[in-house]
Structure formats: C-alpha cells, structure tokens
Amino acid sequence: MFENPFANRSYLVIDDFGDMRTMIKGLLRALGGTVIDAARDGAEAIDLMEKTRYDVILCDYNLGSGKDGQQVLEEARHRKLIDLATVFVMVTAENTREMVMGAVDYEPDNYLAKPFTKDLLRTRLERLFQRKHDLLPISRAVAKQDYANALQLIEERIAANPKNLSDLTKLHADICIEAGLLDQAATIYEQVLNRRDVAWARLGMGKVYFARKAYAEAEQVFANLVRDVNTLTAAYDWLARTQRALGDLQGAQATLEQAVTLSPKVIKRQQVLGDLALTNDDLAMAEQAFGDAVRLGRHSVYSHPSMHAGLATAKSAAGKHDEALEVIGRIGKTFENSDEALFFMLSAEAGIRQNQGDTDAAETSFAAAAQLYQEMGQAAPRQLGLEFARTASRLGKAEKSAEILKAVIRNNHDDDDFIAEATEVYRSTGTSENAEDAVKDIRQEIASMNNHGVRRIREGDLDAAISIFGQAADAMPGNTTINLNAARAMILKMERHGLDKAMSLQVRDYIAQIKRLAPDDHRLHWVTEHFQKLVLGS
Amino acid sequence: MTEKSELAFADVLAASVHDIKNSIAMTMSTLDALLDDPGTQVADRDKLHHVQLEARRANHNLVQLLALYKLNKGQLAANIVENSVEEFIEELKAENGPLASAMGIELDCHCDDMLMAYFDENLVRGVINSTVGNAKRYTRQRILLSAVEEDGYVVFRVEDDGAGYPPAMLESSTAEDIASDFKNGRTQLGLVFAAEIAQIHRAGDRHGFIHLRNGHTLPGGCFELWLP
User: Fold this and answer.
1) Hey, how many other C-beta atoms are within 10 angstroms of the C-beta on B12?
2) What integer best gives the mean pLDDT of chain B?
3) Residue A123 domain-assigned?
4) pLDDT of the residue at A511
5) Which domain holds residue B14?
6) Residues in chain B whose beta carbon is closer than 8 A to a beta carbon of chain A?
7) How many C-beta atoms lie closer than 10 Å to residue B183's C-beta?
C-alpha cells in the first residue's frame, strides 16, 4: 500500500476563530494527519513554533489585534523557527484591498482563499509537498551560496521536461541573478519573452539591466511593467530603486507613494518612502510613512529605532517638537538598550533641540551620538552614517557632515542607489563644495585603486595586488569590494605558493568582515569555497 | 424608507448573507465528514449527495452575492496574478470530480500544456465551480472542462451533453443583458457574477467576457469564459 503523504507530517493551524480552527483540524484529520496543533493568535503560534518544528503551517492572514499572518511568517523565518522544508500556507478571507500583495522579503509558499473544500486542500498540499521535495536540494544549495551545485541540479530537472517547467525556469533565472551570471539570466528571460509576455520575465530583465548598471533601460522596463500590470508591487520597488540610482529622488518617492496605496502594510517600503520624503523635504509624507512604519512595526521583527528617529525628525521639522520628543522617548521602551537604539535616540534628539533653539542641549546630545558612532566604527550600518550626517548638517556642522558622508561613500563607492541618496544629503549640508563633483572624485579615486589592484591580479603580480588591497582595506574597512579583492589576492597567492599562517588569519578577518557587511553578496562564495579548499588541502 | 435607512438595510442584508454563508459552509464540512466516514449508515447515499450538491449551490450563490455587493461598493479588489492553468484545472477536477462520479456523471478535463494565465484564481474558481455545479443539474452523463489559448485569450469552457441553453439565453452575454432577464423571472445570478468577474480582468485595452453557446464539442450547453 502506498504511503499517505499526510500521515507522517505535523501541522499547525493558526486562526482566531474557534470554529474555523476546529473545521481545518477536521479536514486535516480526514486527510490522514494525526499531529495537529492549533493557535488562536500570532503570539501563541510563535510560542508553539519555538517548541515544535512543524512540517505544515496553515495560517490565517487576519488574526485580530496582534500580529497578522504575514508578520507571523516574517518572525518565524527571521528567527529560523521554520526552515526551507516547511510548507507555509497563508489562508486569506476575502479579497480586501489590504491583501498582502508583494511582501518584500518573505512570501508564503501559497495563498489559499476561504472557504476551501477538503479536496482543494488535498490537491494543493499534495502539490506543495511534491514541489518542496523537488526543490529542496536546490534551495539548500542556494542558501549555502553553492550556486554551481544549485545550477547543475536545476538544469538536470529542466532537462527532464517536467510539468512545472515555468516555475523551474523562473527559479533557474533567479539563481543566475543571485550568482551574478547576468548574461545567462538574460538569455533565459529573452527565451521566455519570445514565446509569451510574462510579467516575471519582464521584471527579471529589468533586474539584469539594473545589475549591469544600465539604469535607463531598467527604468523603461519597470515603468512599462507598472503601467501594464499595476498590481505587481515588486515592479514599483524596483522602479523606485532605479529612479534613485538615476538620481531622480522625486520620481522614486512618487513611485513608492503609489506602491503603498496598493499595498500599505509592508514596513520596509514605508521606511524607504519615509527616508526619501525626508531627503526630498516632504515633511508631511515623511511623517505619514514613518508613522505607518512605526505603527505596523509594533508586532513585527522589522521594527527598528531608525523609524522612530525618522518620525521624530519629520514631526520636529514641522514644528511638533513635543510629539517628536514623545516618539523618541518610546525608543528606549521599545528596544532593548542597544548602541544603535541609543544612537538614533540621541541623534534625533539633537535635531529636535536644535529646532527648539536649545543649542546647548543639541550639542550635548550630538556629542554623545558622535561618541557612540565612533565606538561602533566599521560595525555601524551605512544608514546610520546617513542619519548622522543629516543631523550634523541640521546643527550647522557642514564640514563634519561632509566628513561623515565621505567615509560612508568610500565604503560604498560602487552602490549607485545608495550613493544617489548620500549625494542628496551631501548637497543639503550646505558645504562650499559641489556635492556631485566631490562624490564623483571619491568614487573615481577608489574605483581606480580597485582597478589597479585587479589589473595586478590579472597580470599575476599577486604581491603588488596584496599590498594595494591591504592598504585599501585598512583605509576603507567597510568597503565590501575592497575586502573581497584583498581576500582574493591572498587566496590566489596561497594557491600557488602554499598556505601561510599569517596570511590565512588575515583572510579569515576579511571574510568575517564581508559577512558582516554583505552576507548575500554572490562573490563571497568564491572566496569561502577556495579558502576552505586551501585549508583542508594542507 | 429614507435613502439612509435603505443603505443601512443593504448592510444588514450583506451581514446576514455572510452569516448564512458561514452556516452553510459548516453544514457542508459536516456533511463531507459524514460521507467520508465508512461507518455512516444511510439507506440512500444518493440523497445525501443531492443534499451536498444543493448545499454547494446555495453556498456558491451566497458567495457570489456577497462578491457582487462588494464589487458594487468598491470593496472588492481582484488579485490578478500569473497562474498555471494546468494546475488550476487539476484542482477544479479534484473539487468537482468526486461528487460528479457519485452522481454517475463523467467529468473530463483538458488543458493546453504549460498554459499560464493572469487571473484572480479565487474569483475565477467561483465562476467555474458554480458553472460546473449547474452543468451537473442539466447534463445527461458527461461534463467537459477545458482551457485553451485562442486569439490571445485564455478560454475556459464548461460543456455538457444535456439539452443546451434555451435560445433566449444565448443572446445575453453582458451583465446588463442578464440582469434584464432577471426582470423576466429568471435568476441567473451565476451568469451575472461570471460576466462581472470577466469584465474586471483587463490587459491593455482588452477585457474578459463570457459567451454562451450550444453544441461545441459536446451536444449540450457550452459556457465560455474568455480572459485576456
């Protein structure tokens, strides 16, 4: 007798209505399930997930006043309470406008609309089990950044001409993009688009243009996509990102305003919108976006002190200083006493006191924030550098602000959309320099240093390359590209001349630094893989 | 009645419909459980299947009524995304097949390979399920559910081998046409719903529509849903 796929799995049903929980549990039991737990809200669900690793989670999107279904999913994934093998199905009630369209980071494996029959639940879950089973080795390889293996596995699957070819093709292209194989990804998208006008392939093509820094082409693709398929929120996010890279911060803001009207519940999008509005000096929009972010963040793992700081800054700039102080007062209560939270509190407070005309208090807070920023050093996230530069500029410290910005730009010289925002902040500092020129000079200086080193690697002069990148990494420890190339030069040297203790310690440091700065960077895989081989081979 | 109290009454109606719909859903799931349980002893299982069919029909009607009400109030947003039509048809077969075969009806499905389409899966499911449910009442022994690509549209067809649609109905394909039939005493809620749902599926300047005909590949009625 064949094995019932429902019998050997564990289930968690999350719904705020008792009748509904009973009904879904009944359906699962009828399908053969035996281990079935239920939770009435997000908090209870998370508690259960901390104790048990479930195979299948059926979670209602609407869960009353606490977390919603999307926030349960985000917290569970973020805290690794569920893994790649877990099947997570979001159960949705009616087609309401606040539908969880286009979540930014985590999407459930499937959406299922209520009411559903047992037969629908059976076919849906069976297909998801099959899909998980087929794709698990591939997604595991991707998670380890082992792209060569992932690509080999998926190409084998595709060659077998399976039923879900469209799904696999999309995944194939996604992996190529993640692995930085842009030409390969573009070929796949072109082949798909030659046959049919498919939104995901158009979106992918836009991403390829973006990665190639062909921003004008990318903008065209995303703008058309937004026009033709106006519910695809990912296209709005990419369009806004492209507009930022092109320096069109007003356009980027307008695009995100449309996106939040369509899908108002994504915190990260609200925060990006708030930041843009603040940079564009649109205080009403900044207050609205940060206000939404803070409100949505109440039950979310994405809550961050920078949202409170943004809200306070927007309120204070609009003259609502008391409300602003109240907002930053809540940072201390909401977040455990981290340096980051404290920094955002002090930085925002400095701005508010300045606006109130209390320059002494502003200076005191600023000095304390500066102290913290100094201590965090390279560990400080780049967004924090921007905030600090903004505050310095608000206190009339144009030179200090420029100095902070220069350091941040040096560490992120090849990241166009971030640089565009930094340039705008630079412009608003009121320094005597021309912001565009100053930023361009920094970027050119670092790019040419980097290219110089890369050329030495190519010519085989590894000692020269090691020296160039070593000095550069000392000067810009927060620069991902420089750290990667420094590690690469040393690894190549050791591959030729054998393992060297001092050098491998240094490589370890570089890798640790890159993992802190950009854990998802596809170039990291080459470095870790080659380094591992070296160490094991000795 | 003043205009204001009329509006409030519409909300009372909608809330009640919602409540009745949920009761029927619970009834249906209890009935399903009874039918699944080999220990259930009924003299005539066919009668239970008939209850099941009618309960589903009532449920579909109420779901559609609510959807139309929301559409009217601007509260219904279609979630139009790309779906695999093949998988969608498979699910529809799984949902409708068991009851059909219990009634002695053969439900066949056909779909173009790898067909993908943009539609709100939930709304279109409602349209097809209720059409198949109706076909079960009018067919002799066969129902054919198919999906193909024609003229740049994806066409869903539900055909049966019954007597076919009456000539007057073949003329009506828009919601207005069908609504005017309402006045003539026919309650074609399912068709009004189908026409409205077709209409909100748009791509560029094209939009979806429904079409009724007789004797396509089976001798009886043929319902068509065209989506751009």
Assistant:
1) 11
2) 84
3) yes
4) 94
5) 3-72
6) 25-26, 28-29, 32-33, 36, 59, 63, 66-67, 70, 75-82, 84, 86-87, 90-91, 94-95, 97-98, 114, 116, 118, 120-123, 125, 203-204
7) 7
